[in-house]
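To the wet lab folks,

You asked to see what we're planning to order before we commit. Fair enough. Below is the target structure as tokens, and below that is the sequence we designed to fit it. If anything looks off to you, flag it before the synthesis order goes out.
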């Protein structure tokens, strides 16, 4: 093989390698874009569920309005009362949001922009309830992801 032919082969290999590298980069960008789009769509679906927890939010409004000590709802004999069930459903939803963000399933910025003040407010109202539940159940990690998430939102 002549020097010219070997140079042509070399340049062809360089071009093939460059084309392959560009194809890999394009595929990576497409996958990342698809993941980001999917994450945002999942976030919107999650946030659309807010209406399902309106009962819990209304109970918290009443607690604030009446200046009720929310920790009384955490008493063991109140465990199955509808108000307590709705508060816990709301807190479970907030915990789900927090865990989803922690595991990069939901878009942090979208949640921050759309629900930051609501989540902080829910946590501030329910904190005595959560603390009481943790003590009663001897479970210091109850709603801990929600607590961590609120700390992040407050920064």
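Sequence we intend to order:
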């Amino acid at each position: 093989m002549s020097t010219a032919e070997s140079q042509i082969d070399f340049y062809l290999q360089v071009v093939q390698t460059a084309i392959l590298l560009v194809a890999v980069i394009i595929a990576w960008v497409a996958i990342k874009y698809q993941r980001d789009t999917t994450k945002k769509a999942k976030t919107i679906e999650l946030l659309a569920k807010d209406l399902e927890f309106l009962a819990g939010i209304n109970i918290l409004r009443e607690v604030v309005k009446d200046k009720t000590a929310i920790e009384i709802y955490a008493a063991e004999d109140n465990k199955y009362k509808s108000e307590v069930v709705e508060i816990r459903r709301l807190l479970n939803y907030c915990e789900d949001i927090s865990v989803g963000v922690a595991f990069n399933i939901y878009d942090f910025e979208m949640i921050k922009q759309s629900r930051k003040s609501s989540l902080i407010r829910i946590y501030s109202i329910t904190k005595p309830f959560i603390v009481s539940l943790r003590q009663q159940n001897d479970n210091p990690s109850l709603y801990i992801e929600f607590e961590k998430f609120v700390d992040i939102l407050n920064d």
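Structural context that might help your review: The mean pLDDT is 92. The chain has five helices and no strands.

Thanks,
Computational group
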